[in-house]
């Protein structure tokens, strides 16, 4: 079993839809959870960062972490064509630098 | 103002050659990283440097060597390039070790023929 798993997609939704992106992981020591957005031929950019369990909201984006299920989610409300990108989840243990990334989910929001 | 920059953007070279990729950050961060993203889009950390000290070295062949002349730069040298080295290499930086906020460069696409 891979350390972090993520459905690669592609996921196509109509403009305005609510998008749900998910990752599962196996390492119960992970404490920091991140979502990155990567446009084609660009570097990843940090969208959301959550410590431990719970929810975090930022504009149209909501990140959820359920450590008991080893499951994290990113919700995008009122999706826009400009949200079309690959979304990578990433996580790490407490103090270490060992960031572990999922393979990414490719999202297309159709106008 | 580019926060994290890399040069070159594209690099095409023959097997066996030695090449370098440069990275610079103007964010005042004290930790810099090199990642490799393969054709399946997996992003894997290769190295990180904090205050000019190597603090992670994953199972990366010793043909790869990071060099940090100062806090703002972390260059990647690759000796005896192999076909399997073809990938996109990303540089990143962050403020402190404990924080998870990394800023990535635009990537360098390396193709080894």
Give a brief rundown of this model.
With 111 residues, chain A is mainly β. Helices cover 0% and strands 55% of the residues of chain A.
Notes on the protein architecture:
The complex is a heterodimer of chains A (111) and B (113). Chain A contains no helices and 11 strands. With 111 residues, chain A is mainly beta. In chain A, the strands form 2 sheets. In chain A, strands 2, 4, 5, 9, 10 and 11 form a 6-stranded mixed β-sheet that branches. In chain A, strands 1-3-8-7-6 form a 5-stranded antiparallel β-sheet, with no helix packed on it. The model of chain A has no long low-confidence stretch (mean pLDDT 91). Chain B contains no helices and 11 strands. By secondary structure, chain B is mostly beta strands. Chain B is globular and about 35 Å long. Chain B is 0% helix and 56% strand. Classes of the chains: A mainly beta (111), B mainly beta (113).
What is the terminal-to-terminal distance of chain B? 34 Å
Kindly state the percentage of residues in helix of chain A. under 10%
What does the main sheet of chain A amount to? 6 strands, mixed
Low-confidence parts of chain B? none
| Sequence of secondary-structure elements of chain B | EEEEEEEEEEE
Instruction: Please tally the β strands of chain A and state the result.
Output: 11
What kind of oligomer do you see? Answer: heterodimer
Rounded to an integer in angstroms, the radius of gyration calculated over CA atoms of chain B is 13 Å
Structural class of chain A: mainly beta
Order of helices and strands of chain A: EEEEEEEEEEE
- Gyration radius of chain A (Cα, Å) is 13 Å
What characterizes the major β-sheet of chain B? 7 strands, mixed
């Amino acid at each position: 079993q891979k350390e972090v798993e993520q459905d690669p997609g592609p996921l196509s939704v109509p403009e305005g839809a609510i998008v749900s992106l998910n990752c599962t992981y196996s390492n119960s020591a992970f404490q920091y959870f991140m979502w990155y957005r990567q446009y084609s031929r660009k570097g990843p950019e940090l969208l959301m960062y959550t410590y431990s369990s719970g929810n975090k909201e930022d504009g149209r984006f909501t990140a959820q972490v359920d450590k008991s299920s080893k499951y994290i989610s990113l919700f995008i409300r009122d999706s826009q064509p400009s949200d079309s990108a690959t979304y990578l989840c990433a996580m790490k243990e407490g103090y270490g630098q060992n960031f572990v990334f999922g393979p990414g989910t490719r999202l297309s929001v159709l106008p | 103002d580019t926060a994290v920059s890399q040069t070159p953007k594209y690099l095409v070279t023959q097997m066996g050659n030695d090449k370098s990729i440069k990275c610079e950050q103007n964010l005042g961060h004290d930790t810099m990283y090199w990642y490799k993203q393969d054709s399946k889009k997996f992003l894997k950390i290769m190295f990180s440097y904090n205050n000019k000290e190597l603090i992670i070295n994953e199972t990366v062949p010793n043909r790869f060597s990071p060099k940090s002349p100062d806090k703002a730069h972390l260059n990647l040298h690759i000796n005896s390039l192999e076909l399997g080295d073809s990938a996109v290499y990303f540089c990143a930086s962050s403020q402190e070790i404990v924080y998870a906020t990394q800023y990535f460069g635009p990537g360098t696409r390396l193709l080894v023929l």
